[in-house]
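Researcher: If only I could read backbone structure tokens as easily as an amino acid sequence. Walk me, if you will, through where the backbone shape changes along the chain. I have put the entry right below:
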Amino acid sequence: MFGERLKRARAAAGLSMKALSLQAGVSATMIKKYEHNESMPSSGVLVKMSRALGVRNEYFFRPAKYELEGIEYRKRSTVPQKVLNRIKADVLDQAERWIELYNLWPNFPLSPFTKPTFSISVIDDYCQIETIANELRQLWALGNQPITSMIDVLECHGVLVIVTDMDSSEKFDGFQASIGKQPIVVISSKWPGDRQRFTLAHELGHLILHVLLAEHLDEETACNRFAGALLFPEVAVHQYLGNKRHHLEIQELYLLKMDYGLSMMACIYRAKQLEIITEAKSKDLFMLFSMRKWRSQEPGQAYPVEQTSMFKQLIFRGLGEGILTESKAAELLGMSLVNFHQTRKLELSDDHLN
């Protein structure tokens, strides 16, 4: 148990055995023995390792009961395995704390994820995905207005969203996994908000569409169509862009991005999908974006990053209901008891909540 947790924390910190040994004041051989459960560190070494790895001492003694299952990466082939290992370790740690919180509640206040029933049982054309997205918006009472927070939508419907800050490049595209029957979607805190939102909607598409798609349809293409249709529904696209257009202005694409949280490029795709602009016009616009180097960073202000607060809210709710003790709440938040007391009284900023 201890060895597995040490190995995972070291992977999350991106430290070699040698690097950790230098900070802990022991040999790399001893670190290896700790990880193979052949020896246990002294209290002094444990404190040094905890500081080096950025975890509390209690982390090492939490039962290692869970594993991420069915991981589906949306990544470019150049993502180093070391980076993926760090992300996976961070995700598993956050997911374990979520599940531990869940198990402490007599009746957890959030319902588990259940796939809705739609009017279409088999999707044999990408255009039918518009109907699925529209029906989901109605079933989840989202209407046709912009979705304020995709994270809130997923979490309120039983999908666990993990935001990791372990991604230090543009190469990681998020992933979907599960622990038992609990679906998990992972995004990076380093991405702009429109990329986070599209990834969340795309991964939700996999959960919704997987068993509905006819064999000749590509699931990735279908999930991209679903993400666009969910974030910027057909009725809204026609309302803002009209039925037929000869050209789309860059400024109006930017305003749509800031309203609906969908990238300017994705708005162009939506206009092409719904035949508001021609294929030729969409190619012209994409070429313009390439020439001006807007594909990697679009012009104007970035869409705000999304954040998750559900985990923290449930911890403080559990504390208020007497379900959690202060020490357990502090442990789940990865804080010292002193800092937790100050945070509880609003004497520390939310930045101290890890």
In short: The domain at 1-64 is CATH 1.10.260.40 (434 Repressor (Amino-terminal Domain)). The chain is about 50% helix and 10% strand. The first strand starts at residue 69 and ends at 75.
